[in-house]
Amino acid sequence: MSLTPLDKHAIRRSFGRAAPSYDHHAVLQREIESRLLERIEFQHYEPGMILDLGCGTGSASRVLAARFPQANVIALDWAPAMLARVTAVTEPDSINALLRICADMHSLPLASRSVDLVFSSLVLQWSYDIPAVFREFRRVMKPDAMLVFTCYGPDTLYELKQAWRAVDDRPHVNDHPDMHDIGDELLVAGYREPVMDAERLTLDYPDVLSLMREVKGVGEHNVASNRSPALTGKKRFNAMLQAYEQFRRDGRYPASYEVIYGTAFAPAEGQPVKTPEGDIATFSIDALRSGSAKKKP
C-alpha cells in the first residue's frame, strides 16, 4: 500500500499534546470504540490476557477489564501523556487491573504467544509499516487468539482534503489505508477467517474552524513527513475555507469519516507465515513435546 510517509515523532508529540483535551473532543472516537467492543460480545470469547493497543486515555481498557474480570488487561500507548491520563481517570479499586505500557506498536515489549485478544481502535492508520505491525501482533498472540481493530479509510475527511487540493498540492490531511489492502495484509500474515467491512459516518459543524479544532483536539492533525514546515498563510487558509463552501448544506459543514472494521484469528499451531525471509512455521515446545505439532495437510 502506497501512502504519504508519516513523521512518527510528530505523531507522538501530537497525541501527547492532545492528551488533556482528548476526552472532551473524542465523541466520534468513543462511538467507534463502542461499536468495536460490541463485536467482541458476539464471539463468546473469554480471554485471559488482553492487549488494548493505542489505548489513549484508557476508556476501552476499563470496559474490557470490567467485561472480563478474570483477564489481565494491558493498556499500551506510544504517548506517555495519554498513559498518564489512564492513571488519572481509572477508578481506585481497578487501578491494579490495568498494566500500563508505553511502547511502539511496531516493537511490542511482550512475550511471544502471550496474548489472547488484541483490541485496537483507530490506531493502524498511524503505522508507517502495517505489514510489520501484523507480524508483531501475530508474534505476541497465542494460537487462535482474536484480533479486532478499526482504522480510518481513505475517504476520511474527504471534504477537507478536497478543499485543500483547491489551494495547493501539499499534504494537509493524512492519507489512510484502503480496506482491501489491509485485508490482503492479514492474509499474507497468515491470519485465519479475516472479516473486513466499512461504514461512512458524517459529522457536521457550524463552521470549518470548529472541525479543525476538533481534529487537533484529538491529536489527528497533519503529520506527513513532507508537510510544509511553515505556517499556512492567511490568504491560502482563506482560499481553503472558500473551497469548503461547496460542501455546505443547510448552513452546516459536513466532515466524512470512512471507518474500517477488521476481525481475524491468529493461525493454529505451526501454520506458516510469509515474512521477508520466507515462510516460517513456529511451534511451542509444549506442542512438540505433546506431538500435536504435526504437519498440516
Spell out the CATH superfamily.
Vaccinia Virus protein VP39
How would you classify the helix and strand content by structural class? alpha/beta
Give average pLDDT, whole number.
Answer: 88
Count of the separate structural domains: 1
SSE string, helices as H and strands as E: HHEHEHEEHEHHEHHEEEH
Poorly predicted runs are none
Q: DSSP strand (E) fraction?
A: 15-25%
CATH class: Alpha Beta
Question: Which overall shape is indicated by the principal axes computed on the Cα atoms?
Answer: globular
Distance between the termini: 32 Å
> The CATH topology, please?
Rossmann fold
Biggest sheet, strands in spatial order? 3-2-1-4-5-7-6
What can you tell me about this protein's structure?
It is a single chain. The protein has 297 residues and is an alpha/beta fold. The chain has a single domain, classed as Rossmann fold (3-Layer(aba) Sandwich). Helix content is 36%, strand content 23%. It has ten helices and nine strands. It has helices at residues 8-25, 27-41, 59-67, 80-89, 130-140, 158-165, 179-188, 208-217, 234-244, 285-290; strands at residues 49-53, 72-77, 98-102, 115-121, 141-152, 192-205, 253-265, 273-275, 278-280. A seven-stranded mixed β-sheet has the order 3-2-1-4-5-7-6, sandwiched between helices. Strand 4 (115-121), helix 5 (130-140) and strand 5 form a beta-alpha-beta unit. The two termini are 32 Å apart.
